[in-house]
Structures are given as C-alpha cells and as structure tokens.
Design goal:
Layout (H helix, E strand, L loop, with lengths): L2 H15 L2 H5 L2 E8 L8 E2 L1 H7 L9 E9 L3 E9 L5 E10 L5 E10 L2 H4 L1
Parallel strand pairs: 1-6
Antiparallel strand pairs: 1-2, 3-4, 4-5, 5-6
C-alpha cells in the first residue's frame, strides 16, 4: 500500500470517527491545514486543526477518493464527496509528508459540483 493511500485511509477514519487521536495520527504537531489554496488563515498546529476539524454533518457522505500521484514528499488525492441532501464536491488534495508519514501540510482544492456534473 502506498504512503498516500495509508494516509488517505487514516483521514477517512478520522473523518468518520471524529476522534482527536485519529486526527493526531495523520497530522504532525506543527502541521498546516489549508481549506483552500489561497486560504488567508490556515489552521496551523494540531490544536488548531482539531478545533477546525469538521463535525458530523448529520448525513452519511459518500466519497470516491483515490491517489492520483505521489512521491516521497507529496501525495495528490482526487475524487468526489457527495453529501445526501447537500452539496457535492470535486476534490484535489495535496498531502505534504513529514518523514514519519503524517501530513505536515494539507491543501484542499475543491469545487462544488453542479447538478449537470453529477448527472
């Protein structure tokens, strides 16, 4: 299994459990979480990431996320996340790795998908 795939599986676990220990398992203590590439105020440090970590939306989002490309330093994840009764997103994520395989920087590139895109 690739480093990025292992990290992505950990992200999905943390997303589903909302357990702070699962979030800590995938981000370094000094990690940066960019909610968009031009984010003027990314979450910096594990405490800020935990404070910003999304709480359950009340629905069971369906995701199709896969590793697009990776090397020793960076993994790129692409795919979709569909929120029942809500907005659907097309995603491209940058995961910049620390030597231990956790993310030291994470950048979300996402776009809301129009109804014609999902048809």
């Amino acid at each position: 299994m690739s480093r990025t795939r292992e990290w992505l599986d950990g992200y999905i676990t943390a997303w589903q459990t909302e357990n702070p220990d699962d979030v800590r398992a995938i981000f370094t203590d000094d990690a940066e979480y960019w909610f968009r590439p031009d984010d003027p105020d990314p979450a910096r440090g594990i405490d800020a990431i935990l404070a910003a970590w999304p709480e359950s939306e009340g629905a069971d989002p369906q995701h199709q996320l896969d590793v697009l490309v990776e090397n020793d330093d960076v993994g790129i994840v692409t795919g979709t996340i569909d929120y029942p009764g809500g907005t659907d997103y097309v995603n491209l994520w940058e995961v910049h790795f620390a030597p231990d395989g956790r993310a030291k920087k994470f950048v979300e590139w996402c776009s809301a998908r129009s109804e014609t895109d999902s048809a």
